[in-house]
């Protein structure tokens, strides 16, 4: 069941200027199993530009949620990455996921605080998802930790002491949505994606994408170098409005049918790996059909 959204425009006062956020009249499309949907384009301002900064951009979407609670809007996090990149147009997209590193005293960046204003102590680098472990501060320039228990440890990047390019060798798709293993050689399983790790940054919002035209080799790319004040951030927008379960299952089946149809075009040496990677998809679909 497609979810139609009438056009609406919201105005925000930010840095002594009015920012106009506009959601065009389009259908939300379902992602995954359940009632999550997403707009298949980046949320833009009315003049077709993107958010200037990460935290203000997230804050503007938060305000939109308050103005339109019936839409049950949310910012999809990087754990939804597989579904995000099947649906949205190719662009560099902020996922609502932030990497935090401790400073020399063992605390997060000064822009990171608890609700009462207390500093946040960190024993190791962590990642957090917008709406689960953190929200935007009222000033729009910082973040507030709402649930420390939902900050996930990200110790895999502690080994990097200097900024460096690395190819992705492993990826946590289910829990954190972050690369977990790195190598000097490209890995076809992860589309030969690379990550630029900059250990000098205490706050690094994670993005996904930055593809060439019609190419998604950066599917798993994580730019761990961008500071929260960097310009050019773009965001997807989700909705938890009800969707038809049969529609979701039919969509899953269509995706599998397409993937099976690609097999004849593969080389003989590629087929075994390709088929093995399809097994989990078939198993997931079977479980969903049996639960009907």
Description of the structure:
It is a single chain. This protein has 292 residues and is of the alpha+beta class. It folds into 2 domains: 3-239, no CATH class; 245-290. 20% of the residues lie in helices and 27% in strands. It is built from 4 helices and 19 strands. The strands form 5 sheets. Strands 1-4-5-19-7 form a 5-stranded antiparallel beta sheet. Strands 13-10-8-17 form a 4-stranded antiparallel beta sheet, with no helix packed on it. A 4-stranded mixed beta sheet has the order 15-14-16-18, with no helix packed on it. The longest helix has 20 residues, at 271-290. The two termini are 17 Å apart. The model has no long low-confidence stretch (mean pLDDT 79).
What value does the Rg take, in angstroms? 20 Å
N- to C-terminal separation? 17 Å
| Sheet with most strands: strand arrangement | 1-4-5-19-7
Largest sheet: 5 strands, antiparallel
Globally, the shape reads globular
Number of strands: 19
What percent of residues adopt helix (DSSP H or I)? Answer: 10-25%
Question: Would you list the SSEs in sequence order as H and E?
Answer: EEEEEEHEHEEEEEEEEEEEEHH
Could you report the average pLDDT, rounded to the nearest whole number?
79
Class by alpha and beta content: alpha+beta
Q: What is the count of helical runs?
A: 4
In short:
By secondary structure, the protein is an alpha+beta fold. Helix content is 20%, strand content 27%. The chain folds into two domains: 3-239, no CATH class; 245-290.
């Amino acid at each position: 069941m497609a979810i139609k959204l009438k056009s609406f425009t919201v105005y925000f006062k930010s840095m002594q200027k009015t920012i106009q956020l506009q959601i065009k009249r389009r259908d939300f499309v379902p992602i995954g199993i359940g009632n999550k949907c997403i707009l298949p384009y980046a949320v833009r301002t009315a003049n077709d530009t993107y958010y200037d900064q990460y935290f203000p951009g997230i804050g503007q979407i938060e305000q939109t949620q308050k103005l339109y609670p019936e839409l049950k809007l949310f910012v999809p996090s990087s754990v939804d990455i597989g579904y995000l990149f099947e649906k949205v147009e190719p662009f560099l997209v902020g996922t609502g996921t932030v990497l935090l590193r401790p400073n020399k005293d063992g605390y997060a960046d000064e822009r990171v605080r608890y609700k009462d204003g207390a500093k946040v102590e960190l024993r190791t680098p962590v990642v957090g998802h917008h709406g689960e472990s953190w929200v935007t501060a009222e000033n729009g320039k910082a973040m507030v930790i709402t649930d420390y228990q939902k900050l996930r440890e990200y110790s895999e990047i502690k080994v990097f002491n200097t900024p460096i390019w690395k190819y992705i060798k492993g990826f946590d798709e289910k829990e954190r949505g972050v690369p977990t293993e790195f190598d000097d050689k490209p890995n076809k399983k992860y589309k030969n994606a690379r990550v630029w790790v900059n250990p000098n940054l205490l706050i690094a919002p994670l993005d996904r994408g930055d593809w060439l035209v019609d190419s998604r080799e950066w599917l798993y790319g994580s730019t761990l170098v961008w500071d929260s004040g960097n310009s050019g951030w773009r965001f997807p927008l989700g909705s938890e409005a009800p969707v038809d379960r049969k529609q979701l299952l039919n969509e899953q089946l269509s995706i599998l049918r397409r993937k099976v149809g690609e097999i004849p075009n593969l080389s003989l040496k590629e087929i075994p790996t390709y088929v093995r990677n399809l097994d989990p998809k078939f198993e997931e679909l079977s479980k969903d059909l049996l639960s009907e």
